[in-house]
Amino acid sequence: MAQKPSIPKGTRDFNPEQVAKRNYIFNTIRSAFETFGFQPIETPSFENSDTLMGKYGDEGDRLIFKILNSGDYLAKADSDAYDEKDSNKLTSSISEKALRYDLTVPFARFVVQHQNDIEFPFKRYQIQPVWRADRPQKGRFREFYQCDADVVGSDSLWQEVEFIQLYDTVFKALKLEGVTVKINNRKILSGIAEVIGASDKLIDFTVALDKLDKIGEEKVKEEMLSKGISEEGILTLQPLFTLSGSFESQIESLKSILNNSEEGKKGIEELAIINNAIAELGLSTATLQLDVTLARGLNYYTGAIFEVAGPKTVQMGSIGGGGRYDDLTGIFGMPNMSGVGISFGLDRIYLVLEELGLFPETVNKNVEVLFINFGKKEALYSLKAIKQLRLQGVNAELYPDAAKMKKQMNHANKRNIPFVVLVGEEEINSNTYTLKNMVSGEQSKVSLAELINFVK
């Protein structure tokens, strides 16, 4: 017996219902992107290896899927590396291309390569799959989609304001309430590290601070001490551990903590401008919240940092995030190109909508009418009506074979098709159709115009 086929770990098949639900999310996000003036681009699924390698750190490099060169890839292999079984050296000689790890680095390459054709500021969105050679686990896949939007060529804070509104617009359209857009600023974290004398330990400090909700104040202090942050510095941080309340009250508390840091004060000013604008403009469903422990992407974010949390009723990690960067294109020799971008976590948003029952019943655009096939003459008569139904936007089809009627009716039931049309000699002679409601069981003879109106 032949072995049952399978797919690689960390990948997934999607059935028609799942694809319809994913497309519902894609289309909602895409519509919002375009409403806000973002333009679509697409980049190849694979890039030259030197475009990707070295851009994500050692850990990221290990997770990039390499593509073997075409043909006899060992013919040009580094013989010394081959003999020494040095995989790092060998890889560069047998693999010149790799699957993209994210959409950000390919976007940076796109901007630099097409800079003479781009009108800046450039607002782009991209919805495409990415690949990571990660260890598969719940909610983590080797192939998944990213939904990104970025603006490059502007350092205006109005972009951050618009991105918060963009998140709000998408989640309102998805009818997802209770979403929190958390915001912080790299300059505030740098300022805090400065006032406690730990500027050289910014990453250690923020990694520890980021665990405040998970391990508590005392454990965070212990970790900071173990990383060489002084007791005096940690004492200065004390107001930070209990920082709460409204956005405005937290801003006031930060002003006293960061009074001696120009960098920190600049971060406070930027957050205040964003918050004041959002307060004036209002949000429909999301809430803006200041979170000074937020430190995601600290290696490349230089200003605002975003993270989006779903409703508290659903146990789920972040469903979006992003931030401001000052030198996205510098890695490709085009310095000082400021930008800001966000991403939507499609798979997690899907799980949240599924758990809360928020997918519309109409998301599965099913066949609405199935014509029973009684033979060649009846089939041709039916296809003429099907053509007219389709022109009116009705999903209709003919059962392909003149099988037993019971089999065809069971087919309609299994596919949840709400209407069935029966056409026999009598219907052809009277130029009518017998329409059966599969839910109520009622059936009636109708003209083509009546059939179209009834189903529509």
TrEMBL record:
Reaction catalysis annotation: tRNA(His) + L-histidine + ATP = L-histidyl-tRNA(His) + AMP + diphosphate + H(+)
Membrane among keywords: no
InterPro entries from the UniProt entry: aa-tRNA-synth_II, aa-tRNA-synth_II/BPL/LPL, Anticodon-bd, Anticodon-bd_dom_sf, His-tRNA-ligase, HisRS-like_core, HisRS/HisZ, HisRS_anticodon
Compartment(s) of residence: Cytoplasm
Residues in Aminoacyl-transfer RNA synthetases class-II family profile domain copies: 1-400
EC number(s) recorded for this UniProt protein: 6.1.1.21
UniProt superkingdom: Bacteria
GO MF terms held by the record: histidine-tRNA ligase activity
Alphabetic keyword roster: Aminoacyl-tRNA synthetase, ATP-binding, Cytoplasm, Ligase, Nucleotide-binding, Protein biosynthesis
SUPFAM superfamilies: Class II aaRS ABD-related, Class II aaRS and biotin synthetases
Gene3D superfamilies, A to Z: Anticodon-binding domain (3.40.50.800), Bira Bifunctional Protein, Domain 2 (3.30.930.10)
Main location: cytoplasm
SUBUNIT field: Homodimer.
Similarity remark: Belongs to the class-II aminoacyl-tRNA synthetase family.
PANTHER family: HISTIDINE--TRNA LIGASE (PTHR11476:SF7), HISTIDYL-TRNA SYNTHETASE (PTHR11476)
Descriptive protein name: Histidine--tRNA ligase
Organism in which the protein naturally occurs: Flaviramulus multivorans
Gene encoding the protein: hisS
